[in-house]
Automatic annotation (TrEMBL):
<dbReference type="GO" id="GO:0005634">
    <property type="term" value="C:nucleus"/>
</dbReference>
<dbReference type="InterPro" id="IPR009071">
    <property type="entry name" value="HMG_box_dom"/>
</dbReference>
<keyword id="KW-0539">Nucleus</keyword>
<feature type="coiled-coil region">
    <location>
        <begin position="126"/>
        <end position="189"/>
    </location>
</feature>
<dbReference type="InterPro" id="IPR036910">
    <property type="entry name" value="HMG_box_dom_sf"/>
</dbReference>
<dbReference type="Pfam" id="PF09011">
    <property type="entry name" value="HMG_box_2"/>
</dbReference>
<feature type="domain" description="HMG box">
    <location>
        <begin position="50"/>
        <end position="118"/>
    </location>
</feature>
<keyword id="KW-0175">Coiled coil</keyword>
<feature type="domain" description="HMG box">
    <location>
        <begin position="151"/>
        <end position="187"/>
    </location>
</feature>
<protein>
    <submittedName>
        <fullName>Transcription factor A, mitochondrial</fullName>
    </submittedName>
</protein>
<keyword id="KW-0238">DNA-binding</keyword>
<feature type="DNA-binding region" description="HMG box">
    <location>
        <begin position="151"/>
        <end position="187"/>
    </location>
</feature>
<dbReference type="GO" id="GO:0003677">
    <property type="term" value="F:DNA binding"/>
</dbReference>
<dbReference type="InterPro" id="IPR050342">
    <property type="entry name" value="HMGB"/>
</dbReference>
<feature type="DNA-binding region" description="HMG box">
    <location>
        <begin position="50"/>
        <end position="118"/>
    </location>
</feature>
<dbReference type="Pfam" id="PF00505">
    <property type="entry name" value="HMG_box"/>
</dbReference>
């Protein structure tokens, strides 16, 4: 992911897309987003791709969090972060400037590294990576959408009365009993045909014609 974020930063820094960079590729690629083979040396040589520098606030938070944890060992991280945010807002501009200057210096180094690595990339590699970046973004978007939906379902469950919840609880219990009985029947069938190796459960039921009982 760090590599993908970095390459996306390269694209933004250039003000171009992979399609723009490959405008002179002719017919070597079927379309701007066609898959292009990326040789092994490419991923290995960029394994140390630079990460974006921490912002001034993130740097400050990272320094303060261990201190706040030591002072408040039982507090949740969310509570500590709120306290750190409040402290940052109240921090004098002269002290904030120290973190802001450090961020600017790191950002300059980051840009220089981006420019250095940019020279190693071919247009086809840029196109391939841009496609992968888009796929990652779509997956992330779908995951966020799923989480929002699950959160809404959870809120709806909390708002149900106990009597309403009991209906679903009973259905779940009935389904569990059904599953247990079906699994038991299947295990007995597997034992009858000599396929005990397919039984993964710790308790193995005897065959129906086996006189021995548990």
């Amino acid at each position: 992911m760090a590599l993908l974020r970095g390459v996306w930063g390269v694209l933004n820094a250039l003000g171009k897309s992979g399609a723009d960079l490959c405008a002179g590729c002719g017919s070597r690629l079927r379309s701007p987003f066609s898959f292009a083979y990326v040789p092994k040396w490419f991923s290995s040589s960029l394994s140390g791709y630079p990460k974006k520098p921490m912002t001034s606030y993130v740097r400050f938070s990272k320094e303060q969090l261990p201190i706040f944890k030591a002072q408040n060992p039982d507090a949740k991280n969310s509570e500590l972060i709120k306290k750190i945010a409040k402290l940052w807002r109240e921090l004098p501009d002269s002290e904030k400037k120290i973190y802001e200057d450090a961020y600017r210096a790191d950002w300059q180094v980051y840009k220089e590294e981006i420019n250095r690595i940019q020279e190693q990339l071919t247009p086809s590699q840029m196109v391939s990576l841009e496609k992968e970046i888009m796929q990652k973004r779509l997956k992330k978007k779908a995951l966020i959408k799923k989480r929002v939906k699950l959160k809404a379902i959870n809120e709806n469950w909390k708002n149900l009365s106990n009597s309403q919840k009991q209906v679903y609880i009973q259905l779940a219990k009935d389904d569990k009993i059904r599953y247990y009985n079906e699994m038991k029947s299947w295990e007995e069938q597997m034992m009858e045909v000599g396929r005990e190796d397919l039984i993964r459960r710790s308790i193995k039921y005897p065959a129906k014609n086996d006189p021995e009982k548990f």
